[in-house]
Structure formats: C-alpha cells, structure tokens
Amino acid sequence: MRVRPTPKVAVPVMHHRWANITFLHWRYPAETLRAMVPGGLEVETFDGSAWVGMTPFLMDDVRPPGVPALPWLSRFPETNVRTYVRDGRGRSGIWFFSLDAGRLTAALGGRAGYWLPYFWSDMSVHIDGTRWWYRSRRHLSGRPGARGDVRVEVGAELTGPARDDLASFLTDRYRLFTVVAGRLAAAEVEHAPWPLHEARLCGLDQTLLHAAGLPAPGADPVVHASPGVDVRVGWWSR
C-alpha cells in the first residue's frame, strides 16, 4: 500500500470535521472525463481507469480560525461528486463536479467565497449504529432537482493488507482544484489519514451523476466508509 505525504496547512482559513462519510466510487474511461476538467489538469487513473466518487457525509464544527462553532450554521449534510486529477507540476488532487449542502449559507458561501460548484439541497444524515442513511433533494426553481439517497451497512476497519492501493488512491486526497477568475488554483487540505471501514451498499437512488453530465456507470460502486477526520483548509494558490 502506498502512503501519500500529508501536507501541513500553516495558515488555515477554515476548520471542519468531515464525519460519517461514505465513499462510493465508479470506474470510468479516462477519455469520458477529459473534456470535463479544465486545461492545466489531466485525469488521474488507477488500474487503467478514471474514477468518479460520490461522497455523502456530515459537515461538522465548520468555523474560521479563532471563532467558536455555531450549533446551526456549523453542522449540515453535504454530498460531493468528484474525480481525481493531476496538475502540470504532477500534484494530485480533487476536481469537483458538484457539491450539495444542506445549508443555504454554506452553498452561497462555497460559490461566492470559494469558487466551488455548490448547490443548496434538502438533506439529512441518520446514523443508527452501523447503519447509515443519507437523503438529498436539490432545490431547483420550484421543481424537484437531482437526488442522492444512500444506505450502507458499515463493517470492520480496514487495516494492513485489507487497506489496499485502490482504497488509498480513492481517499488519500489532500488538495482541491478550482478555477478562479479564469486561472487554475489549488488549495491544500490537512487531516489525518482516513480511518477506513469496509461497507455494504444497501440502497442507492441517485441522479447526481447524470446532473453533473456524466453517463450512467457500468457497474456497482466500490464502497468505503469512515467515522471522519478533523480538517484544516488552506486558501487558494494560483
């Protein structure tokens, strides 16, 4: 299993906890995704395939440095649709196709302040021991928008050989990419390695991939889960 170096964010602009996260990943041909990422980035592959992830989770303890978390504003569900890329310097990271947030303030702030494709959605996360449920319905001009409903059963933690190179490739990601004023930008993300668990998909009803312009995946997803990590997010660097 390869271990990616974890960057250090000297001056964070935000603190988060990404809690009760499920990683769903599908194989895609790299050529399918090439036109969907900006110039300056290339699609990163593993075992000859590009990968698209859908990651529902609970965003918690969201706050700027030195500011206490607020009970309502600082906790909300989120679901990301993303793929994995490298820039011209060979640095790996995440390219987001969409981010759905259960708080309007978070969606507006993510678009205006962080240049990411956020959407406001009606969302919930329910945790009952090893059974995790996620529900998402995107608000879209008075009509039903894209949905993302997921149910999983979480199993044992993956350690040693069970935590293989594919799991590392799909989850050990410490950099985000976006486009700011027409120019590619990157932000570092600092957190401990994910404590990954095996997970069984019990139910999936989603149109988020289609809404992002992606064709339907050709097989069932690879599934992992994690209780979460504490995160420090840096500012964009062009």
From TrEMBL:
PANTHER family: DUF2071 DOMAIN-CONTAINING PROTEIN, DUF2071 FAMILY PROTEIN. InterPro entries: ADC_dom_sf, DUF2071. It comes from the Bacteria. This is DUF2071 domain-containing protein.
